[in-house]
Amino acid sequence: MTALYDTIGLNYAQLRKPDARIARQIHEALGDARTILNVGAGSGSYEPEGRDLTAIEPSAKMIAQRPDTGASAIQGSAEALPFADESFDASMAVLTIHHWSDQAKGCAEMRRVTRGPVVFLTFDANHEDF
Fold first, then answer.
1. What is the largest CA-CA distance in the chain?
2. 64 part of a folded domain
3. Residue 27: which of 1, 44, 49 has the closest Cα?
4. pLDDT in tens, 62-88
């Protein structure tokens, strides 16, 4: 599987650091979920600590940059999540949906595998700021 971030994400973990204000809002939106799926997880920014987290990411280079937090990391895509229905309490997708080949399919897959909240952070590419 060839992924854009295998090329452009070589030092992503050093360059991109979470913003505490955004992290707080994401964590609040996840509520008390214990099992969380992070779709398009990249190097793991904004993943809450102390929870059972599974990351799915198309780029092997991004997976290799993930810190050793105990989270499971699987190479794959949003459009074909390899999990049973309602496998997770919550799911999240942070600054990734604009990379998906089929946004509707990826969103439907997240809803399928999630019992509770589905949390997105994205931006409008037509604007210069978030």
1. 38
2. yes
3. 49
4. 899 888 888 999 999 999 999 999 999
- Token pair for residue 37? 């799926």
* CATH code, 41: 3.40.50.150
pLDDT tens-digit map of 22-66: 999 999 999 999 999 999 999 888 999 999 999 999 999 889 988
Q: Which of 81, 2, 6, 3 is nearest to 37 (CA)?
A: 81
pTM (predicted TM-score) = 0.84
Kindly list the distances between the CA atom of residue 117 and the CA atoms of 14, 67, 84, 109, 129, in Å, as whole numbers in the listed order: 29, 25, 17, 13, 26
Q: How many CB atoms lie within 10 A of CB 28?
A: 9
**Domain limits for position 27:** 5-121
How far is the C-alpha of 103 from the C-alpha of 79, rounded, in Å?
8
Structural contact between residues 53 and 69, judged by C-beta atoms closer than 8 angstroms: yes
